[in-house]
Every structure is written in C-alpha cells, then in structure tokens.
Amino acid sequence: MTEVHRTKIFTASCVALIVTAMTFAIRAGILSELMQDFTLTNTQLGWVNGMAFLGFPVAMMFGGLIYNYLGPKKLLAIAFICHVAGLVLTITASGFMTLLLSSFFIGFANGSVEAACNPLITELYHDKKTAMLNKFHVWFPGGIVIGSLVSLGMSKMGFGWQWQIAIMLIPTAIYGYLVFVEKFPVLIHTETSTVNNIKALISPLFIFMVICMSVTAISEFGPQQWVEKTLGSSGVHPMVILAMVTGLMAVGRYFAGPVIEALNPAGVLLASSVIATIGIYTMSFATGGMIYVAAILFAIGVMYFWPTMIGFVSEYLPKTGALGMSLIGGAGMFSVSIWNPVIGGWLDAAKSEAILAGKVGAEADLAAGVATLENMTLFPAALIVAFTFLFIIRKKLVKGEIKAAPLAD
Hints:
The chain is mainly alpha-helical. About 80% of the residues lie in helices and about 0% in strands. The protein has one domain (about 5-180, about 195-395): MFS general substrate transporter like domains (Growth Hormone, Chain: A). The longest helix has about 35 residues, at about 320-355.
C-alpha cells in the first residue's frame, strides 16, 4: 500500500497557497498598467479585483459542500486547472470582460485551494490543528512577499504585466505535480457527514463568527489590494510597503502558537482589531518614514485575523467540518468582493473632490488615497466592539473534538 507522506502533501498545500498569494500581490502591483492598457476607471478596476474575490467564496462554498464526497486531492486538482485557465486568460485578455472572466477563474482556483487545504491540514495534524493552520497560512503573506518582490523586480527590468502573470505558472506546475503523484489520507478525523455539518452551522456562535469574518477580511485585504492606488503618490514604493507588511505577517503567523496560548483566540482577535484600527488610521495621514511605522502597526494588527478565525471554527465548532471552515473563509472573501468596487468608487469620488478643490496629478491622487484609508479605518473599528463581546463570553465557550484513532505519521 502506498504510504501517505504528510510533509509532501503539506508542501503541496503551501505551494498552492503561495500561488494564491502571488495572484493577489502581482495583480495589486499591475493595476495602473491594466488601467492604462484597457482604459479602465478605478471603479472598473474594483470590479476586476472584485471578481477574483467573488470566485473565491463561490469555490469555498461549492468545495465545502462536496469535500466529503470528492476529497482534498480532487479539489486541489480543480484548483490547478482553474489556476492555469485563469492565468492564461489574463495574459491573453482583450478587454474589460475578459479580465472579469480571468479574475473569476483565478478567484475560483484560490478558493478551491482554501476549501481543500484547511480541512486537509486539520486531518493530517489533528493533534495540533491551530499551530499547523498558522504555519500553513504563513505562506499567504509569504507568497505576497514573493509576488511583490517578483513584480517589483520584473518591473525594474522592463518586463510587462503579461510576463509577471506568466511567472506564476511555474509554482502552479510544481503544486500540480505533487497533487497528482502523492497519495492523500483517508478522512478519519473530520466530521464527514454533510448533513451533520449543515446542522452544526445553525449555531449563534457560528453565525456571529461569519459576520465577524466578513469584516476581518476586508480589514486585511482592502488596504493591501489597493496599496498601489492609495499610497502610490505618497513618496514610498507601494510594493515595498506590501512586501514589508506581508513579511511581518508571515513571521508573526509562524510564531502564533505562544501568542494564542497566552491571550486565547478571543484576546488575540480583540488586540488585533485595536492595533489594525490604529495602523490604518495612521497610514491615512502619515508621511515619509512614518508610513513605514504605520504599515508595521497594520501588519501586526491583521496578521492573526484569517488563520485564527478558521482555527477558532475548527477548535470550537468541529462538527461543522470542512463545510464550516470553507464557509467562514468564503464569507470573508465574499465580503471583499462586495467592498472592492465600493473602495474603487471612494477613490474616484475623492479624486474628483480633490480636483474640484484645485489639486492636480499626484497631489489629487494622494488626497484620494488619504480619504479612502480614512474610510477603511471603520472596518477594524467595528471589530473592536464585536471582539470585546467575544472576549467577555470566552469562558463560556467549550472546545469540541472529533474522536478518532491517531493518524500515523
């Protein structure tokens, strides 16, 4: 019988997440080129970005419902096919509609990676779920660092946005190979009854976490996805800021275990929301070197949001199974898909106001970025209230566990 290699499967999952992250980073770095080449407005750019975030939750909801039937291997194969299709369609795009379609494919691929890998990792490492989920999610900010530096380096060398998209086909091929050749585990540590999964979703705690996830996601991804447009005229290179922020996030997630143990998940989420609010607000008025300080605060604030929310569901609501983890992530990305065009609209409206006030060029762009970041501050500020409530009731929450035989290493 072929042996299940946990390390190789975990590596394939991490590389797939790196591809997911690179799509976010490189697309964030080429927005101005797309705007120029296809004569798009900021609002249209928002729709292009939004389609990627829409494809993500669609895939997560779809993947969560069929996870027990297909299993993680087939879901990752779907992710591979959609990544290839989305990247090729982007490279060969002929206009706004083609960009929308390619963005949806990439978003669907990204969501399929999350839908497959989160429950897969809790199955492989059922005795240390939260720790390994955090180590897995190191590679989202880690992949954004890679993507940001690749985008910056290729731009400096004169490579156009098509080549920057094409470079992502290399790690895509790597994880695709591992997925097709490796044997995946039998699901014995996951609640595999979809009916039971659905019943477990009807919980006030789960509904509360879904609502919170919709806000934590836009708090994290809003400033990152629009960094080129909000900070591009501030005197710092937005891709350097993005690489620094996500680099700090990767380090923080790698060492998340002791932090979560010391503060508990509710305490971590509350502290994160406070620091994120301060960070985004400071970015809205900071200049020069202070922008880097603000960016560091932002990174510390949002670094634990995503994996801690998914880990919380896995630990405290295990009967929701793969479906619960998929829906919590899907809710986050669906929120971002809805807010992206709104953020683009904020930028357009703020720039129009700045022009009417007599500002032009970079000065008008900077004013629009400042106004938009001020609006984004409202997201984590709302979370302070929500997570204060969660922190107060934390002692009443009881961890659950699916009982099963140990998984051989």
